[in-house]
Design brief:
Strands 1-2 form a two-stranded antiparallel ribbon. The longest helix has 12 residues. With 207 residues, it is α+β, with helices and mostly antiparallel strands. It is elongated, with a radius of gyration of 19 Å. The termini are far apart. It is built from 5 helices and 8 strands, in the order αββααββββββαα. The structure holds zinc ion (ZN) (5 copies).
Amino acid sequence: MSERREEVTPDSMEQACMLCGWAASDPEVCGRKIKKQGLCAHFFCLFFASQLLYWQDEQPGMLGFVMQDILHAVELAAQKRCFVCGKNGAAITCCREGCDRSFHLPCAIEGECVTQYFPPHSSFCREHRPEQQVEALPEEDTECLICLEPVGDRKSFHTLVCPACKHAWFHRDCIQGQARYTAISSFSCPHCRDNHDFTFDMLHRRL
Ligand SMILES: [Zn+2]
Ligand SMILES: [Zn+2]
Ligand SMILES: [Zn+2]
Ligand SMILES: [Zn+2]
Ligand SMILES: [Zn+2]
């Protein structure tokens, strides 16, 4: 006897994040959803939202953000159009002075924007994102040291190289995923073990 499950995802009824408008999204990108006093927002959407200040003592807002500030950020976002998907409600704005490109956190990768997952959580549009300065090209059949899939034969937004040894290549998504769960002090190139330049390039420049 086979009992067919209803193909209804719980997400279709889930509350959407007030900062990006998505109910379901990649937790690797947006983080978990936080709900309080009728507000609902992704963990990382809160951190990246423009002009949203984080307060150390957690009262009385959501995770150290003041409720009023969150509502203000939502209001601001409502007036901004995402340059990637064209929809309103783009809470993140490029940090480069004078640039007013805004985007949703879940649209960042498609738009080739850089969002830095560490304080002060800066974000950049694809034109102003920091680039890796290393002169190196992946050799044929080079694999990503994390997932062991090929990285392709050129440097691109999706490919990063260790600035110290210039031999370790990674997919941006792979290194970004790892960076989020590794302490900065132990974050190093799996190939040459360089920590200083590696961390700088992987975190401060690109992620
Ligand atoms: Zn969100
Ligand atoms: Zn968008
Ligand atoms: Zn910009
Ligand atoms: Zn990879
Ligand atoms: Zn290295």
